[in-house]
Structures are given as C-alpha cells and as structure tokens.
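Hey, I'm writing a tutorial for new members on how sequence and structure tokens pair up, and I'd like a real worked example in the thread rather than a made-up one. If someone can provide the structure for the chain below, I'll link this post from the tutorial.
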Amino acid sequence: MEKEEKEKVKKEKREQALENKCPTCTASISFNPKLGKWKCDYCGSEFTLEEMQKHENNASTEKKNAKTKEDDFDGYISYKCESCGAEIVADEETAATFCVYCGNTAILRSKLSGKFTPSKLIPFKKEKKDAIACFKGLSKGRPLMPKDFNNEKNIEKLRGIYIPFWLFDINVSGDITMNGQTVETWTRGDTHYTKTNTFLLTRGGTMDYNHIPQDGSTHFDDDMMNSIEPFNFDEMIPYNHAYLSGFYAEKYDVSDEETLKLASERALNTTRTILKDDAKLYASKVITGDTLQATEKNHDYVLLPVWMVNVKYQDKMHIFAMNGQTGEFIGNIPLDKKKTAIYTIVIFIISFIICLFVSYILFLMGGK
C-alpha cells in the first residue's frame, strides 16, 4: 500500500520536459555557439532566435505548454521526454539535461521559473572541440601526467554547463591606515649605514564595482569558478530558454544574501589593494586598520557558460574547466606516482653518473 502511494505521488509530480524542434523537419535542434544560431544536425537548417520564436518552439517562447510543479520526490523529479516519452530523472538543482534514451535536450522549465528565472545569460561562444583541444593540450610539457587522463572516455564526459551566478554592483567607501617604511643606505669609510624611516599613512576614497560574479551553486568550487574569470558582461543578453538547447544547466541553491557576503569581501579586498598600491614611495607597507564599508547597489541572477569535466584518478576527483565565452581555462592535473618514482630514480642515476664522470676527469687532471 505504501509503495502504491509513493508511485501515485511520483506520477503527480511528473512534468513534461521542454525541447526545441527544427521548424523544417521537427527534429531536435540545438544552439550552435560558433554560428550564434540554432542549427539542425539532420536537415542543416539554421534559425535565429526571432525565427525560433516565430515558429513557437516550446523552449524559446513564454507559452506555458507544460506542467510546472516545484515539488520533488525524495530529492529527485521525473520528467517526460517529448520526443520518445521516456522518463528523465534529475535532481532538484538540474534545469537542463539530456534524455538518456534519445539524446534530446530536456529543458526542465519549472526549475527556471518564478524566483529561479535568470534575468540574463551569456551564450556559449566556444564549442566542444575548443574545450577538447584545451583539455588535450594539458598533457604537453607534463610527462608525469597519467597516460589515460585525457583518453577518449574522459573526453566524452566533457560537457557544457550554464552555471548560476549572482552579479553584484557594490559601492565601497572609507579609509585605510598603514605603516609605511623607507630605507636609506650609505657607506662612510669602512662603516655601512642603514636608516629605516616609518610613517603613518592614510588613504581613502569611494569606489564602484559593477558585475562582481559569485557562483550560486554548491556543486561547483568557488575558487575554480573565480579562476576562469573574467567574463565579458557586455555580451549578456536577456534570458531565453532556447539558449539552453544542447547544454546542461543548473539553478541556484545559494541565495543572494549568502553570496553577497563573499562579493562584498572581494570588493573590500580589491579596494584595500588599490589604496595600498597608491602609496608608491614606500619600500614596505602594512595595513593596520580600515573603516571601509561595502554597500550593495544592485544584483542580478544570470547563467554563465562553462565547459567542464571531472576525472577520477586514484579515488580523487580532478577538475578541468573552461570559460565558455573567452576560452580561459584551469586544470587540476594529477601526477602518476609510478611515473614520478621512475623519473626520480632515472634523474638520480643520471646525476650520479655525471658526478662520477666529473670526479674522474678532475682526478686525471690532478694526476698531471
């Protein structure tokens, strides 16, 4: 009886997954970063966003043609693929995924509606082949990297994800106080003198920061997301579901209040650095205090493009991520312990032989 109740609840919480259809042949169609348009891989047709909206594609219009319930079942929600009717299961943060049976994009609209609707996004400009080239390039100059790290199996896991970000406009004002030092040296006769002068310094002002990005998902490492910045926010466009076609996407699970603290600290630290660097005449500077205050002026919820793959090596996850707009990338590359040990032994043997040879040559020279 309990099992039947669960199945009933699960069925009630199933919804249709949206996808884009080619207006020409009705096959599934995805956004092509290189073209900046939607291209059908079956008939070769290309469409702009306006053309997609004109044909009233499910994911490109605001027409509500699917059930959109926010409830979940044991942390997961099931969706029905419109192409093959299969059930797609996703966790509660997933906003766009793929049908495991037919491969079509499944845009889970309820995850990007209401308060979870982004205001803007930056479309992908880098294609998967660009990310693959960067990923393969990590092996160059790294002889100690595991041989199978960038094999085809790992490359296939590389995926484009729209990651939720909060963008903050923050004003910082106030003063900092520092101890600055200058050093003088001179020599008189056989005596060398050093004189250190210490000064109390004050610097202050008001600074405005626009679009400070802060990762809004607990699934992604903040330091790694910071490392692939900056994004060109001049290329942001109004959010539309259609741009998710062919990519994964997630909704935020960290609120703007929580991320504001991190964004404010970034603004404060940057201000301290700028004010400290303004005191150019001093050999060393140590900040002793400040009255800086950060005030939020505005914030936006947006989706930003990232190519990413996680590779497991010896029970540890190693992450590769690339900015889907600029191509900036970072890779957490492991060392093959066996290769490292062999390399160390070989270097030791070669160094030992060289030392013996040099010693022998010196011995012969000394004998003469």
